[in-house]
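Protein modeling request. Please complete all fields; requests missing the sequence field cannot be processed.
Requester role: graduate student
Desired output: 3D structure, token encoding
Chains: 1
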Amino acid sequence: MSFLRNGKRSFQMESESRLESSLWVKNKRYRAVLTGWHFKWTELDKKNCDKKTISVPVAEVVGVEEGRVEILRQKSVEDTDKDFTVFYVKRSSSGGTYGLLWRLGRIQFSCSSRALRDQWTKHLRTALKTHSPLRPQRLLVFINPYGGKKKGREIYHSLVAPLFELAGISCHVIVTERANHARDHILKKDLAGFDGVVCVGGDGMFSEILHGLIGRTQQEAGLSENDPAVTLQPCPLHIGIIPAGSTDCVCFATVGVIDPVTSALHIIIGDSQPLDVCSVHQASTLVRYSVSLLGYGFYGDVLAESEKHRWMGPLRYDYSGTVVYLSNRSYTSVVQYLPADPVLSSPRDRTRCLAGCSVCSRSTERLFPHSSDSGSLYSSHCSQFNNDSEEQWVSVEGRFRCVSLTCMSSSCPKSPLGLSPSAHLADGTGDLILVWETHQLEFLKFLYRHTCTQDQFDMPFVEVHRVKAVRFSLPPGKEGDSDETEGQNDDEERSYTDTFERNGSQIHLAERGAGQEQKTANPFLCGVCCSKAPDVSVWNCDGELLSLTEILCRVHGQLVRLYARGIEDGAALQNYSEANVPKEVSPKC
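Delivered output (589 residues):
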């Protein structure tokens, strides 16, 4: 009976919002039809025969304005009694295999009377509210003026702000003045009335907002983030990303392109993409959260080396990668992991997590089994972490070139398929990649395969496992050596102190070898020319250095939500073009 009532209500809403009439675009007459879910217009010739049709989902209509309106750097309106303008999403190819660029489409209609014009604008706006309930009305925007090419303010005010104004979104804008400015604001200030938080910057700014929102949510729920077994409460506010940094991995992996206009349009229409988050603990202390890469060995060494050459800009990563590759280092480690259910998915199944991913959709039902709406979804989130017996953990010990854990594909323009091409954004698991010690040329082949479509896991020294949690440590007898050799690993970079304030507590990461005599090492540490390679590495946690040798990592399913929908592929553009690009058809008079 409830199904019949819902069906009847849906039919009634569609009937009430349906509108059909003749409209003019310039000197051509069209038959315009608004149903509950689509707005389409069909050109008519002099014999009233259908000629060509354009159809736009109501959910992708950005805004409706009376008069003849143009959106440039400054909005211009020509007030006419019988005209109205519709702005909507238009797609185009990004030039790659995956990811579509979104642009603002615009069409101006003329009506036979002002009353008809008012009827159309009213019906379209009502349809937007009915079929786009997650559209934000008020946003908190943080702009990093120093990230990337230092164009964050220019990108926001010239490209994004006009679109938000067109969509009727009110924004409170804060230009950050220091590191962790955004995180501290979110933790301490009143967020009532905001629908989401937007970062204009790179992965560093996103990480600040991520830590702030998760910390604020747990604080309000009375939960301790320092407890590795606690079930974290998902964040109620969405996060929007306007890419303007030197690295925009999270944006690329969730949208498919690095383009401010595309990201702004996803925010405007209220797209919602859940995202898994990995917590990193040392003993009973939360160290950090990660969504893209947690890497020990090669990726940690590259980041540590690049910090010495920040003056080089983005080129420092290529340079540092070459230096670390030539050093030919490997590290003895103990890795324990809790396997995920192999029936649900596999990191070798060669599938891609794209928009509308069925694996992530099924995972929502698995992670939140008793939920029927967003409120109960958050409150019913249950974890099986405490129920997993110690026998289910798998232990591996050996020498590794790198140990990596990622909760997403971690794709980027240089590696379009990413570290783990079949990883999913919201299935409650991560992919653990173990690269054993191997010949230098073999490791080079492994790295090269990240830039093409070859399977980087199809190599005898590479393992990949879909996991729910990971424990990392040094073998017995190695713990005491780590302090002695740590100075060789990073030299000056290891003498840093990171202080994180969350829920009133401080997480203090200092050099464990402080006060000890630093040993002098060749700056290149090349395997050919250096006297001795270091025994321990550092962690690259989403672009931040962590100097730890014993950690517990746990994946929290769908902990946050982004204003995104996942990566769209070329087939989506083809289907969209077939429905929306004007094409000649044979007359049916």
